[in-house]
Amino acid sequence: MHHHGYLWTGPKERFDAEALRRPPHTEPPPAGSKPELIQRYREVVAEFPVVDLPPLETAYWLVKPQALVRGTWDEPKEAVAWLAARLSEYAPRFAFAAERDTAHMARLVNSAVERLGWGGDVSLGFYLERPSYLSLAVVTCSPNRSTPELACPT
C-alpha cells in the first residue's frame, strides 16, 4: 500500500463545474435520447479522465494523468507531512480565519494520519481569497479501499 498526493487550486467557478468532476455513467444514454444529452455524455467520457479538476469521489484521482500526482509515499506519516506543508503554505490565503487556526490544522493533520493508516483517503478543501478554491487529497493506492478496481497511476 502507498499514497499519492494531489493539489488543485483555481477559480471557484471552474471548481463548480460538477459534470466534469463526476465519472461518466457506466451506461450511455439510451437510443433516442436528446442529442444534447448524448453530446454531454461523450464530452464527460472524453474529458473526465484528463481534466485536472478534483473528482467528487476522492478515489477517482487515480484515473487522472500521472502528471497530476504531486508525490508518492509508502508511509502515511510521509504523506501527511506533505499535506501539513501544503496547509502551512496556503493557510495565509484561507478565506476564513477559523481555518487558519493552528489547533484546527493540527486536528486535520492528526485525523489524516489515522485515516491513511487504515487505508482510507483524505480530501480537504478550502476557499481562498479572490474567490478561489484549494483542493488537497491523499489517495491510498494498491488497492484503494473504496474503489479497489481503480489502477495505480504510476
Structural description of this entry:
- The chain is α+β, with helices and mostly antiparallel strands.
- Helix content is 34%, strand content 19%.
- It has a 4-stranded antiparallel beta sheet with strand order 2-1-4-3.
- Strand 3 and strand 4 (132-141) form a beta hairpin.
- The longest helix has 16 residues, at 102-117.
- It is globular, with a radius of gyration of 17 Å.
Write out key terms for the chains shown:
4-stranded antiparallel sheet, 154 residues, 34% helix, single chain, alpha+beta, 5 helices
* Rg computed from alpha carbons, rounded to a whole number of angstroms: 17 Å
Count of helical segments?
5
Low-confidence stretches: none
The CA-CA distance between the termini, in Å, is: 13 Å
Number of strands: 4
Class from secondary-structure proportions = alpha+beta
Order of helices and strands: EHHEHHHEE
The major sheet is characterized as: 4 strands, antiparallel
The 3D shape can be described as globular
Q: Strand content of the residues, in percent? A: 15-25%
Within the largest sheet, what's the order of strands? 2-1-4-3
Specify the helix fraction band.
25-40%
Mean of residue pLDDT values: 94
